[in-house]
Amino acid sequence: MALLNLLLVVLALLFVAFLGYCLYIKRSHMKYDHIPGPPRDSFFLGHAETFLRITKKDGNVHDKFLEWAEIYGPVYRVNAAHIVFVCVYCPETTKDVLMSPKYLKDNFLHSRAFKLFGERFLGNGLVTAVDHNLWYKQRRIMDPAFSSLYLRGLMGTFNEQAEKLMNKLSEMADSKTTATMHSLINCVTLDVITKVAFGVDLNLLNNSSPFPKAIETCLKGMVFNFRDNFFQYNPVNWPFVNEVRKACRLLRTTGAQWINKRRLAMRNGEDPPKDILTQIIKCFDKENTTQEDEEIMLDNFVTFFIAGQETTANQLAFCIMELGRNPDVLEKVKAEVDEVVGMKQDLSYEDLGKLTYLTQVLKETLRMYATAPGTSREVLEDKVINGIKVPGGLTYIFSSYVASRMDKFFKDPLKFDPDRFHPDAPKPYYCYYPFSLGPRSCLGLNFAQMEAKVVMAKLLQRFDFDLVPGQTFDILNAGTLRPKSGVVCTVTHRKYKK
């Protein structure tokens, strides 16, 4: 009888808890449902079923956000279970929130990148740190590794690594082998970041390595971790969950090895290079380094290891894809490269500044394919956006991908038109921010664009390329946005007129 009474008490408590949760969700609906938004899939899960359905089909959820923006306007509500987000594509609010240091990155979304299925991933690194003081300390110490003077000194490495890609493409042109450009460029950008940031030569174009697959696995795991609270508890998903955990451990174990090797060299009196690895160590290396300090060093290692190659590789692959689809743009950018670079093998820093049309091409690529599509901030005070009162305490989601594809900001937005970024063209007003905006904007912006220009200029100088027919031009949302097909091309040596 006592056991039965205990069971009845437990059931009563569970019922009260369930009823309380229902009332909490209902109250949330009543508080925020004046904000426009799509109908919820269900009372409890909100729009989560829509996101999961798209994710399981390898679709691009950002296209759904774009569709909703066109239907519901520049500010609308999205429900994920009991949590409400506000998607904002209003330039004035974008400027107000992203340009100010007082609006912090939100805990909910960034906690999903802190760990993946229980394994620490990006942790409290430079991209994911929510605490402003912790972020500012890291950013201030990292800045010298991205100074203009230091970046100028990287031109030799950019040229050297890009030359390895040209040699590989030359072999493929001679053997008439099709080239999957995204995969090849991925190797180059990873080689660049490991060389200039960590002082390690991987030579991935000629050697196999577990790192590219590990990065891809972690990013894919992050997508599921964002969109499905119960993903890791489904036995069907356990093999993949274990792959993700193993990939996280590989990246962090590698980081620990490389950090310890550099530390030993520094303690032995060797003069370390002023690269990212040295800055990571300087950031926390003191006599009383705590275990959390050690973990944050690894957080930053993983952050730069991934961010330093993934988005640049995706941008370059999308750029090649669009040039293959737009022969008039291709001929124009080739003509500029021929005029500026000519037949010389290595580009100088000054050459990059003269490649104005190539710069426009790369910017237009990021407008259509913002490889890191968005960011978020926690806004505590009430705001009025586009005439709609938005209560405080919500997370605002900003997407450069969505804003850049809205015809209210860009005429004929699905047309690839580099002249949008001509020096004399009107500048986009807070609706184009592929590297985010304000104090939390991407530290590696100039690094990435220098590397992209060197690779593209050499490619255009040496080769003609044609997209293999029949491939898709769809976008794969794998944490970052990448071309689903891989951009498969036939490559031939350019024939210059005598």
List descriptors.
alpha+beta, Uridine Diphospho-n-acetylenolpyruvylglucosamine Reductase, domain 2, Cytochrome p450, 2 domains, 3-stranded antiparallel beta sheet, 11% strand
Bulk shape:
globular
Number of helices: 19
- Computed over alpha carbons, the radius of gyration is 24 Å
- Residue fraction in strands: 5-15%
The largest sheet is: 4 strands, mixed
CATH class of the largest domain: Mainly Alpha
| Uncertain residue segments | none
Question: What is the domain total for the residues?
Answer: 2
Share of residues in helices: 40-55%
CATH superfamily of the largest domain: Cytochrome P450
User: Numbering strands along the chain, what is their spatial order in the largest sheet?
Assistant: 1-2-9-6
Distance between the termini: 101 Å
CATH arch. level architecture of the largest domain: Orthogonal Bundle
Question: What is the overall pLDDT average?
Answer: 90
Estimated structural class: alpha+beta
Please give the number of β-strands: 13
Might you state the CATH topology name of the largest domain? Cytochrome p450
Give an account of the 3D structure:
The chain is α+β, with helices and mostly antiparallel strands. It has two domains: 159 residues, Uridine Diphospho-n-acetylenolpyruvylglucosamine Reductase, domain 2 (2-Layer Sandwich), CATH 3.30.43.20; 295 residues, Cytochrome p450 (Orthogonal Bundle). The chain is 54% helix and 11% strand. The chain has 19 helices and 13 strands. It has a four-stranded mixed sheet with strand order 1-2-9-6, with helices on both faces. Helix 9 packs antiparallel against helix 14 and helix 12 runs antiparallel to helix 13. The termini are far apart. The mean pLDDT is 90.
